[in-house]
Specification:
The chain has 156 residues and is mainly α. It has 2 helices and no strands. The longest helix is centred in the middle third of the chain and has 135 residues, at 3-137.
Length: 156
Amino acid sequence: MNLNATLIAQIVVFLILWAFTMKFVWPPITKALDERASKIAGGLAAADKAKAELASANQRVQQELAQSREDIAKRIADAEKRGNALVEEAKARASAEAAKIVADAKAESAQLVVQAREALREQVAGLAVKGAEQILRREVNAQVHADLLSHLKSEL
């Protein structure tokens, strides 16, 4: 065989193989490579978008945490104020109750003093009547009269 004919035959076979590859094999490969490249680009874009969303979400979380801390601080302050107000109110009620108890005790003691005075007056009146009976039963004598009065004084 001739070298030129072999070379030409190989060129023809190569061209047929090249045309077949370009028509049937190469388009699916380039399509697959393009799809793969677009998927990678989409993944990278999604990753960048996710990073941006994550940063935004972190910022919102930080803002909400700060707001929550402020709300909690306000609530704690309000609770402390309310607690102090309740303590003051309880102190005022206790003070009023103590004043009422003291006033009731004073009134009761005054009433007991009045009752004791009345009882003492009754006893003094009874003793005066007894003394008068004893004086009237006996004869009027200055010495006996003085003795009876001193005896009455000792009984009072």
